[in-house]
Design brief:
The structure holds two protein chains of two kinds. Chain A is of the alpha+beta class. In chain A, a hairpin with a 4-residue loop joins strand 2 and strand 3. In chain A, helix 3 packs across helix 5. Chain A starts with a helix and ends with a helix. Chain B folds into two domains: 256 residues, Rhopdopsin 7-helix transmembrane proteins; 140 residues, no CATH class. In chain B, helix 4 runs parallel beside helix 7, helix 5 packs antiparallel against helix 7 and helix 9 crosses helix 11. Classes of the chains: A alpha+beta, B mainly alpha. At the A-B interface, helix 3, helix 5 and helix 6 of A face helix 4, helix 8, helix 9, helix 11 and helix 14 of B.
């Protein structure tokens, strides 16, 4: 699983600079899959998940819990992006959601599949969390280490002493 | 002393060049600008050797003041090597080479002008001649043309270096890099100061004014020692440039070591909080997948799992406990401090863990999470620092222990706001 995640990351990283933001990451994944990705902050208190990924035929929608720290939000968004990168279908169908559940109001009925970040019992969730950790780790390492193969002028200046 | 400097400094520069030539580990490619960095360091080493009394005497034995021409030409080559280095840092290799060509042509032209001017001036009218030393105002104009060509090339290279190192010194994300680049920029300033002196001295001479006592080569204006400024300023400049561009590279492995130690220690400090949070919320731990044991990965997972656990305990966060802890912190004069905020958050989390452990009812109006002030900037370091202070208070503070005791004794609904 680790090797597969690294391989997928290998496809993604060439689309990103050494130091990249969450916005740049979302844009790169969107370019890779050829569909727009919408990221929304939501107050999910009372719901069972702190992150959701909704898969539609023409778009992807990611929701993350707003009432947590910026780093945690970033991990949640990366987790949902990882579902997209891994090609997960989403283990929850719209028909699985009880009609009186708050979630039913949040999600469009045309959704093809839903992934929710709750626990890591399912293999898809494990893979997405592992992939998210690898991405966030790259983001962190880029802040403490220069690029191994600098391409832009900024990266060359930052790498000049290493 | 001069012998020691003119051999010791080049030895340092050659050592710095060898540092850049060293084989890389972990399959890391040598940066594209390595070649230009090595060239620059070696060019400066050769240029400084040009000032060695042995070299100077050997050149002057051929013809009067040839040592000046030799050392000046070597300095020009060294200056252009700085321009080359900047080009390769700022541009792709092909583009850097394209931009470098006219500068090399400029260097060639300047060296030609200086050589022609040097040999066109009779030996008994050159800088060290008695006539020029005593009648500096009547020195041949070609000597000033020589100076002008020299100053134009060196000044352009130095200004370019100063502007870029200063600008980049504010952009680098690392403190040690910023300090090094600032040091190099200050070194460039000293070299420019020396060049300005050369220009003013030459200009004054053309105008027939002996502005600086001491003749064409050196001034005695600042100190009673001959050549103190004209020797010290460029030397100090070169030393600062060399140190500024080398010391950060030498410090980098130590900085890396310290960072890894900090990551390991912080992950360890998070353990009390992580252990208790994950005991009541085991689902937040990514157990099924073996992740690398690099300290940054361990720290990252620990921080995320603590965040997940705290978020999952949201419904057990008591406003009454939060209020009680806030009042206790105020009584101790820690209100409004980062430690005070960490104590309150630790108390609320500790009570929430206790509530989850005993199966207490959810809070009707849960207390919000602490913002952690500006510490929670969004990166791993900031978040880890905040959670580490919460974890430390969680493990040791008596306000936290009181909060747990209150939660334990209270009926499930009694702690609700």
């Amino acid at each position: 699983m680790h090797a597969a995640c690294e391989d997928r990351l290998g496809d993604l990283l060439p689309l990103l600079p050494h130091r990249f933001s969450e916005e740049e990451l979302v844009q790169a994944v969107s370019t890779l899959i050829g569909r727009p990705i919408y990221v929304e902050a939501r107050d999910m208190k009372g719901n069972f998940a702190c992150g959701l990924r909704e898969r539609y035929s023409d778009r992807e929608v990611i929701s993350f819990e707003i009432n947590t720290s910026p780093l945690h939000r970033s991990q949640i968004v990366c987790h949902e992006l990882a579902h997209i990168l891994c090609g997960h279908k989403g283990s929850i169908r719209y028909s699985d959601i009880p009609s009186d559940d708050e979630l039913a109001d949040m999600i469009d009925w045309s959704v093809l599949g839903i992934s929710a970040r709750t626990s890591y019992e399912e293999q898809d969730e494990q893979e997405a969390e592992l992939m998210a950790s690898l991405i966030v780790q790259r983001m962190y390492r880029a802040t403490v280490m220069p690029a191994k193969r600098p391409t832009a002028a900024d990266e060359r200046w930052n790498a000049m002493f290493t | 002393m001069i012998r020691l400097i003119t051999l010791g400094l080049p030895a340092l520069l050659v050592a710095a060049a060898l540092f850049w030539i060293r084989p890389r580990r972990d399959g890391q490619a040598r940066p594209a600008h390595s070649g230009s960095t090595i060239t620059m360091l070696l060019a400066w080493a050769v240029a400084i050797v040009g000032f060695h009394p042995g070299v100077q005497d050997a050149a002057d034995d051929v013809t009067r003041d040839l040592a000046k021409l030799v050392s000046n030409v070597l300095m020009l080559v060294a200056s252009v090597s700085v321009v080359s280095w900047l080009m390769f840092l700022n541009h792709e290799q092909a583009e850097a080479r394209r931009r470098l060509r006219p500068r090399l042509a400029f260097l060639g032209a300047a060296v030609t002008v200086m050589t022609v001017a040097f040999f066109a001036v009779p030996a008994d009218r050159r800088w060290s001649s008695e006539f020029t030393n005593t009648h500096w105002g009547q020195a041949p104009i070609l000597l000033h043309v020589y100076t002008l060509a020299y100053v134009l090339v060196t000044g352009h290279a130095t200004y370019d270096c100063l502007a870029q190192t200063w600008r980049r010194s504010s952009q680098s994300p690392w403190r040690v890099h910023r300090a090094g680049l600032r040091g190099a920029a200050i070194g460039c300033f000293f070299v420019l100061l020396y060049l300005a002196y050369k220009v003013v001295n030459a200009g004054a001479s053309i105008a027939g004014v002996e502005l600086f006592p001491g003749g064409p080569r050196c001034t005695t204006l600042v100190t009673p020692f001959r050549c103190s400024f004209s020797f010290t300023a460029p030397l100090l400049g070169v030393l600062l440039i060399t140190a500024g561009l080398t010391v950060p590279a030498l410090l980098w492995p130590a900085a890396k070591l310290l960072r890894r130690r900090w990551e390991r220690k912080t992950a360890q400090d998070l353990l009390p909080l992580w252990t208790d949070v994950t005991a009541v919320r085991p689902q937040v731990v990514l157990r099924a997948v073996v992740i690398e044991t690099d300290p940054d990965v361990v720290l990252h997972r620990r921080v995320v799992e603590v965040c997940d656990g705290i978020l999952d305990l949201d419904n057990h966060r008591s406003r009454a406990i939060q209020r009680m802890a806030t009042e206790a912190v105020e009584r101790r004069g820690q209100a409004g401090t980062a430690t005070g905020a960490a104590i309150v958050e630790a108390a609320v989390v500790a009570a929430a863990i206790e509530a989850a452990r005993t199966g207490a009812r959810d809070q009707d109006d849960p207390a919000p999470q602490a913002t952690g002030e500006s510490a929670r900037a969004g990166d791993l370091r900031a978040e880890a620092l905040w959670l580490r202070s919460v974890s430390q208070q969680y493990a040791t503070n008596d306000i936290v222990r009181t909060a747990v005791a209150v939660q334990r004794q209270a009926a499930p609904t009694a702690t609700a706001a």
